[in-house]
Fold:
Amino acid sequence: MRFDDIVNDNKHNFDLIIKNCQPYLRQIKNDLMFRGLTIPQDSNAAFGKKKARLDGREPMDTSPKIHNSLNKHFTEEYGHPYRNGVFTTGDSNIAGKYGDTMMIFPIGDFEFIWHPEIKDLFQNVYAGDLWFDYYKKTFKLKSLTQADYKKYYTWRNSIEDSELLNMFPPYQTTGLDAAIQSKGEIMVWCTEYYYLSAGLREYFLNWVNYGLM
Structure:
């Protein structure tokens, strides 16, 4: 299909995004956020609008205990329980592992957090052995003896799971373009968002960049 034909078929959707997603579009250049979605077969697979599930989201990989502890931490530090937010990434390949690869456009005002060292909070932090590293760092131990292990498990059961984040600098709440370019996890807080098929990326960017905003 010709470029003009594809643009004509989608320009109404493009214009909706341009009109209603200015707080997001003003913060980015040519890099966009992606998310994997399962799109019903009887719907428009290329474009749609979704409400964010900000209450009671069930985690896919993280245990409810860790999930709730992190939400408490993020609310205290950054104002929202971000583990209930919309998970996005600047890496379309990663997004594609979770469903149909879609570009994500928060509608209206939104907030976000990201971390330059943590690409995936569960995989990089909670799926590994960082608790032992954190314990040794906290108590200035080079290694753990058998007695230390007993003390470790007592200590581990006495603290919040979110304590492990103290091994890292704080999350960042600005620099969306840098967040996208990092190809890591971006947690977005918004009430609703548009999704647009990643296959339309170049067509959308051309529509935006040729002065049609």
Summary: The chain has a mean pLDDT of 90.
